[in-house]
From TrEMBL:
GO terms for molecular function: glutamate racemase activity. It is an enzyme of class 5 (isomerase). GO terms for biological process: cell wall organization; peptidoglycan biosynthetic process; regulation of cell shape. It comes from the Bacteria. This is Glutamate racemase. It comes from Empedobacter falsenii.
Amino acid sequence: MQGPIGVFDSGYGGLTVFKEIQKKLPQYDYIYLGDNARCPYGIRSFETVYEYTKECAFKLFDLGCNLVILACNTASAKALRTIQQNDLPEGKRVLGVIRPTTESINEYTKNNKVGILATQGTVLSESYKIEMNKFHPTIDVFQLACPLWVPLVENNEIDSKAAHDIVEKDIQRLFDQSSEIDTIVLACTHYPLLLPVISQYVPENVTILSQGELVANKLTDYLHRHPEVETQCSKNGHLTFYTTDDAKSFEANTTIFYGQKITASHLDV
Ligand code: DGL
């Protein structure tokens, strides 16, 4: 039976990716699920992120989704592969955001020196290095965990002095690893919101990539290449938003991530 496309994140951040998917592919029905009650995932163990992500993906399957996108980098890094290999019920698919990013990175870097800014969990998983090495083994990857960036965004301190100080120091740390980096991936759902600050501390010749558009383009390709999945996605342009935390505060905080007001409901997973 046809069903909506599920989009999952640990909280609000995945809305930056979802916004682009929905813009590019407005014909489909979508269910967005944010696990706000258990956010952040970026500091949690492999087992915990895997369990939480699996629960949420299965909740989306129960709600009728046949295809679920893990918009969260940490979940993509720590849970996607295991879920794909061990847990998927027949006819259900789960995709992440790391592969679409690493597959197309060669379209951006000219000197094969790429910086990855992400949560601690994503960095420690080495997923970006592993995936990059599969598709583009000549690319050197320089990673930096930026544990303070998610709280800055969550606390709406995007343009504060603290944000400037922290971002400047972290960008310096990344370039201390290699001054030749010519492309930086914002490999965390929250970081695109800090782009106006980040771009002030990154040299002008460096490309800064947010994942939303990239993921939306790759999803479009994927659906073309997989008609057996595409035909299982319902197309009425209907959007549903769920959070595992309080719906009213979810609604109040989503505008900076999604760009418009939404109506959400609480969901237990
Ligand atoms: N959504 C997470 C990510 O993209 C960031 C927030 C969190 O740590 O849960 O890695």
